[in-house]
């Protein structure tokens, strides 16, 4: 491509400013992230360490319609329009089953690659989205904390920026430490006009001799967008419900998260397979604040979740590095036991947490909360969320849970196996 044309395009498109800003802020681009694998192989970075993938479901997922107590009379009487008939449930045992949209998860369960921790919550629950999510991400229910639990692990291990990476639109507080911070690499790739292919403009991302440092940085940023577009394109088409894609259907709730989990996990998979030395990845799916018309919204979201997670775990099983990946899926709280007057459910408390992967000892952990012995209409948590995160810190990140969970002494769960 003619150098003058290329420079004019970069300047007029505004990529120069964005690229320079990103470079100056120290934010990792996708190309730079992939190059850390080469640096790790050439240095003293230990190879083959386990990897943790944290998937946040923003909005408060209805746990009772995700892991369903299908034989419990109180479940059916409390939400007669929302409760699933026993014959629709994907049965896991004689009492609990999965939402019918979670067929991939059921397959992982049958293969002993899925564990479900029941009744997960924290003391003195808060029904505010933002306060509750802050508690989960800082692992500090009692007092506000300025750092996230992964961020404290980054501090304690003096980790490099690429040790923790978020493929979300914004860096979650979970990855923020006092002296260290994770990297945010948004999954969004390049949007081009109709009829213009990525291949046709790929020359814009190649370095040219004699150009300024700012233009070179802009070109690198543009190359990042092209690379990410190629990685996420096969995973960008979400499932359809009643003729609409999930991303179009999910209402904006302002509670965080996004609607492209498959795209985010495609980038995680590429990094794992390239042996990038990242130990913690963060991804998210939003839209679970189902106060009205819950059935159609939650089913659409759970179907997207199921497609993304099952495909990711399957792909991870093809490589040695992938088989060392553990996925933890959580939401800030569950929903009320009783349905509201709008065919939805309001903010509640405890809910299930999924732990997935080829190193997971599948099955149930913890105790399913009672649907009759409630706390002001809400489930009573039977497992502290710090026990789940503490297990991940100890067995995936080889850290001391007491040190990174604010002094909480985690009850480590036998979730992981050495197979």
UniProtKB/TrEMBL annotation:
Q: Show the PROSITE patterns listed in the entry.
A: TAT
Q: What's the short name of a Pfam family annotated to this entry?
A: DUF1501
Name of this chain's protein: DUF1501 domain-containing protein
Origin species, per record, is Micromonospora trifolii
């Amino acid at each position: 491509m003619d150098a003058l044309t290329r420079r004019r395009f970069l300047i007029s498109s505004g990529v120069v400013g964005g690229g320079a800003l990103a470079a100056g802020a120290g934010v990792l681009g996708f190309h730079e992230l992939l190059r850390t694998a080469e640096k790790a192989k050439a240095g003293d970075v230990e190879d083959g360490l386990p990897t943790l993938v944290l998937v946040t479901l923003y909005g408060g997922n209805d746990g009772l319609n995700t892991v369903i107590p299908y034989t419990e009379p109180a479940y059916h009487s409390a939400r007669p329009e929302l409760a699933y008939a026993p014959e629709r449930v994907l049965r896991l045992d004689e009492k609990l089953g999965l939402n019918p949209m979670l067929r991939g998860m059921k397959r992982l369960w049958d293969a002993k690659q899925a564990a479900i921790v029941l009744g997960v919550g924290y003391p003195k629950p808060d029904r505010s989205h933002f306060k509750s999510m802050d508690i989960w991400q800082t692992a500090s229910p009692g007092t506000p904390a300025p750092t996230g639990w992964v961020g404290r692990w980054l501090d304690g291990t003096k980790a490099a920026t690429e040790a923790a990476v978020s493929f979300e639109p914004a860096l979650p507080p979970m990855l923020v430490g006092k002296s260290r911070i994770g990297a945010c690499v948004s999954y969004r790739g390049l949007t081009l006009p109709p009829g213009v292919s990525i291949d046709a403009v790929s020359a814009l991302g190649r370095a040219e001799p004699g150009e300024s440092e700012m233009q070179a940085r802009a070109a690198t940023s543009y190359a990042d967008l092209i690379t990410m577009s190629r990685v996420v394109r096969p995973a960008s088409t979400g499932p359809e419900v009643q003729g609409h894609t999930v991303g179009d259907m999910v209402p904006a709730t302002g509670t965080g998260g996004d609607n492209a989990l498959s795209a985010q996990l495609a980038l995680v998979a590429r990094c794992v397979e390239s042996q990038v030395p990242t130990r913690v990845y963060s991804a998210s799916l939003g839209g679970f604040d189902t106060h009205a018309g819950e059935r159609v919204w939650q089913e659409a979201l759970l179907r997207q979740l199921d497609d993304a997670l099952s495909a990711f775990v399957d792909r991870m099983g093809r490589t040695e590095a992938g088989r060392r990946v553990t996925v933890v899926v959580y939401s800030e709280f569950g929903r009320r036991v009783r349905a509201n007057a709008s065919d939805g459910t309001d903010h509640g408390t405890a809910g299930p947490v999924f732990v997935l992967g080829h190193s997971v000892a599948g099955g149930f952990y913890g105790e399913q909360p009672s649907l009759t012995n409630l706390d002001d209409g809400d489930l009573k948590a039977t497992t502290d969320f710090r026990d789940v995160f503490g297990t991940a810190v100890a067995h995936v990140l080889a850290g001391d849970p007491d040190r990174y969970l604010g002094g909480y002494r985690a009850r480590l769960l036998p979730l992981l196996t050495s197979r």
